[in-house]
Amino acid sequence: MHVHVIYTGGTIGMVDSPRGLVPGADLEGWLTRLLDRPRTPGASQGGPGPDDVTLTSLDPLIDSSNATPASWQQVIDTVRALAAPSTGPAAFVVLHGTDTLAYTAAAASYALTDLPHPVVLTGSQLPLGVLGSDAAGNVTGALVAATSGRVGGVSLFFGHRLLAGNRATKTSSWAYDGFDSPATPPLARVGAPWRWYPAPPAGTGWPVPRPYARADVVVLDLVPGITARRLEALLTPLPDAVVLRAFGVGNAPGAEPGLTRVVKEAVEAGTAVVVASQCHEARVRLGRYETGEVLTRAGAVGAGDMTLEALYTKIVFLLSQGLRGAGLSDAVGRDIAGEVT
User: Which positions are annotated as active-site residues?
Assistant: First the structure.
């Protein structure tokens, strides 16, 4: 099976410089050597050989901390352009920096719901040239997953696990199992043989999505003692949408004078307010406690069990489709690509 690898930048292909780590490793040579290994005819889950893999490096290569919605769209456009010919690749692997890897995976999942080819994103915590790096294991795992015939849509491989791309979140800046899927089980675990698990429902899809564009979306954490005056200042001028990261199942300090008024006025002015949870594992239920019900009365909507990465990129996606205000709020709960239960 022909797999095309798209290299966007990130730690995996970086080298030391006087300014710190920068892109510069011979990724193509390294990938050829990695895949040029003895192969057992008929071996299961062996992955592709060097003749089955091609490589494109995006220009410019970036540290993923510099990624923007335009960067997501560059990956999406590259996949679509390569997948268009009938002789094109049957699967894609995207090499990406870990800092915003889960954002790009989620963003791609919404924009590529019609793509018949699997797209697997991965990266590494250490550059490929460092002794003990996780680069080789993550890349080979992503290639095996992409060519397995067992996975579709957009997924993320890291630390011996394959996760749904819009269910993953980065949990560690150093551990080799640096990503988790708090609301759903992994799609697969590496082993001899691999263990595969049921995937989340595919979602409704989105026909002919418009390209991603930058949007004014604010992410705010509520903390004990936050005042209405501070919240209002943070929302001035009003953004297109607000992700309000509340406590527990979506609870807010509703007894704080004027705080829910600020939320209500923002909603009435056309700003969508979406309530998420600060908990790693949570499903927002705004009506369960009075402190969450006050946000519902103010016009806010809940994020369900979406990760921050999935929620933020979904809001940017919906804004890019032309949705605003109440229309945007209504669409947040729509399951586009399996991102919400």
Answer: 11
